[in-house]
Write a structure and sequence with these properties.
By secondary structure, this protein is an all-alpha fold. The chain contains nine helices and no strands.
Amino acid sequence: MRQETILNYKNFLWLWIHLGALIVVLIIYALHDPIGAPNGGTWLGYSYGIIAALGMCVLMWFGIRKRSFFSSKTTLKGALAVHVWLGIFLLFLVPLHSGFSFGANVHTLAYILMVLAIFTGIWGAINYFSLAPEVGSHRGKGNLKELLQQLDIISSSIDALTIQKSKKFIDLTRMFDFTFQPTLKRALCQSMMSAPVPRDVAAFVSDLNPSEKDEGVNLIGLINRKYELANLIIEETRVHFWLKLWLYLHVPIAVAAFAVMVIHIISIFYYR
């Protein structure tokens, strides 16, 4: 059974609605025969401009809907589906509104910002589908806070094992244990850490005092687990960074696009 997502929500309902609307506005635009070249000052230009402005208001409304946990009128997935397909629809509608006339003006700036907002939104959708499955907490591996807590427990357990041990045991710990400090730079630039090679480990453990060999085996098990947790933390930090970066770009650009659109509307009525 196919999983329902924001793109195929209700069998691509909002895709077909916006595709149908796009076909209609294209046909009307093709049949429109104004005096002179098509532009935003014709009755069709004003009509498409009003529709585009209302569309921008709907796009901005999603930010409110996303934080409304008790809404009974819409589902969050349905609202996001509208948000995605409406944004793509506006990419085509706004040039039709202006008659494909662009220049050094507020109208063009509003469209450029809108395009940037839409493309950062598309980037976010791609990240959602490609990166979200990699989040450890989605696969039952615990969230970042839980992984860090487990790492601290493992490190404390390793320290406890080395108390009152022989020099060889301490050397074994120093050889394979490591200090791990999770940072964003490390997550983005460093590859996954490699656990100790079993053959090398076996040689060191076999050289321990007989009374310490069992604890040596336990020590290596803890160190291997520590490597596993460190790699999970690196992966989790990296994925969360890319999942959030697009949003830190998308929201300010979208707000700026909406503000410039309002200025564009006011300027039209002020200077007409």
